[in-house]
Amino acid sequence: MSVPAAIQERAAWLRSEIERHNHAYYVLDAPTIPDVEYDRLFRELQALEHDYPALLTADSPTQRVGAAPLKAFPPAVHGVPMLSLNNAFEAAEVEAFDQRVRDALGTIVAVDYAAEPKFDGLAISLTYEDGVFVRGATRGDGTTGEEVTPNLRTLRDIPLRLCGTGWPVRLEVRGEVLMFKADFDRLNEKQRERGDKLFANPRNAAAGSLRQLDSRITAARPLSFFAYGVGAGGEALDARTHAEILDRLVAWGFPVAAERLVVQGVRGLLGYFEQIGQRRASLPYDIDGVVYKVNRLDWQDALGFVSRAPRFAIAHKFPAEEAMTTVLGIDVQVGRTGAITPVARLQPVFVGGVTVTNATLHNEDEVRRKDVRVGDTVIVRRAGDVIPEVVSVVLDRRPMRDLVTPLHEPWSLLSHYPVCPECSSAIVRGEDEAVARCSGGLFCPAQRKQALLHFAARRAMDIEGLGDKLVDQLVDAGLVHTPADLYRLDVATLSGLERMAEKSATNLVAAIEKSRQTTLARFVFALGIRNVGEATARDLARHFGDLEALMAANSDALQAVPDVGPVVAASIAAFFAEAHNREVIAGLRAAGISWPTVQPVAESAQAFIGKTFVLTGTLPTLKRDDAKAMIEAAGGKVAGSVSKKTDYVVAGEEAGSKLEKAVELGIAVIDEAALIELLTQGVNA
After folding, report:
1. Distance, CA of 113 to CA of 94 (rounded, Å)
2. Phi/psi at 97 (nearest 5 deg)?
3. Contact by Cβ (8 Å): 327, 349
4. Could you give the residue ranges of the DSSP H alpha helices within 280-358?
5. Looking at CB atoms within 10 Å, which of 28, 101, 293, 637 has the fewest?
6. What's the chain's average pLDDT?
7. Regarding beta strands 427-428 and 436-438, do their DSSP bridges make them parallel or antiparallel, or are they unpaired?
8. Which residues are catalytically annotated?
């Protein structure tokens, strides 16, 4: 069937437009149209190719979706061998490389080098004929690789047709297939949800995804590509430097590392290495070093090659991020929020530039999944400033009692740590939670600072002036162990602290004194019970009316409160069941913390139902938020303005126009004392 000229033009425009948007989205990370519009263009091209099969070409963007499984990977001979690079690990080796280059070139001036990240992925070669992608292959042995063209077609940041002009008839583009860190994490999460084996690291995941016999599997994996040079055909380019070649690749539609730079001399090389090393952890992809290449292409030709590596380039490697060592024991650490984290105590090993003796095991489920046992040989990973972690166990090195029985039993948290090692409170783990926690939140030394900051927060006890630095000083000096100790502080003690003048100390003591008068809802929230936020604290106070009834409630009684389910009820019950927490609460009550008594909902029958209140001015002891919460707890409504529908106006000092309007309309005006009396005795309709 012949294809009308108008249809050919439309299909060509669609292919060009879709590729332009692919480049903007996948390479530039700057999409120019919404997804729905992209999908519309894509579907239109699919429909045209379906109606006119002659339009379908190998470089169409619709052909990136994957094909049926291949029987095997055919060999692919590279037009120019894909050579390895020699490595440098110390600054002295980089200095020696620069000296060799200058000696070979016979120059005493500083040499310009193209410096770029060394991707930790899979090296590939892409062959283009007349600007169209025709073949892709892995590095293989450097001379012959595996042809994986159908799989590479699925990568959206590999152009199927080159942009612009100026490429040779046949061109090999060299680069790296890799997987971004975030994409790797999402892929492993999906693997975990399906119960499939997890990938060890992004490089392995990328390599395994590219070598799939079924390219539809590759298409479903989040692979990316960066170009870093050219092979066969590069000699035909009118370029003087390696940096110019990279710029050409960008112009032709390839993603190239934004971190590339031209530097001068050995000082520039080492400065670049340090700069990239500092940014390494924040880069979206893994790198294992940097690559230095003499920038001038004629100098590259003059330097030539030695064995299987070029003389004009070298890889400066970062310290290894993974190493093998032995697990000497498994302990736990208690975090600021009470989270219990298993920690492997290791035979000291140098990894990531430091000597590592401890590595996190994250949680009990991870220990069980990886089956880490005392005595095991393990792979430890440390990336940048990230806490070292145990990646996997080397099972064939596991100590055995006999041929079938391991020397050590599987590790479990509660069998080794039935109580918190910091405070001896019970360790609990929610039904739907991966992390176990110490239940002694108000008492546990590990949680002390976090508990104090939460207790003093504005929507909790609202102790103005008690911030992070002051809490650090109070705890580190041994002046405060639990929130109850705050109420024993005096001006003389506080003014002796660093950067704490007498006026600041006086203000803080006044704020602590003021916090003795609060509401039950604020107090419950201030306790820092896991899963209990402000709204839940108000609901609990409203339902039970007093602290003793709340503390005595079992799970069934707690779940009678609106929006309190089994998980929240279990957190509350576990908190109040811990004797240490009850002791601290008793100390707080003994310190004079109190609140207006409010009848529980079941007894007061929500005395304020149908009543509308307006608050104005400053109340003597209650904050406006507290007064509002108390009214709402009793079923009332708090409005922002006075109208004929208002039942009560609660007036404090400096009440303004709202009070005047209430008097004008003949609405009942009460003070704070009258409000509390109404709350405790109920309102007669």
Report:
1. 12
2. -60, -45
3. no
4. 297-303
5. 28
6. 87
7. antiparallel
8. 118
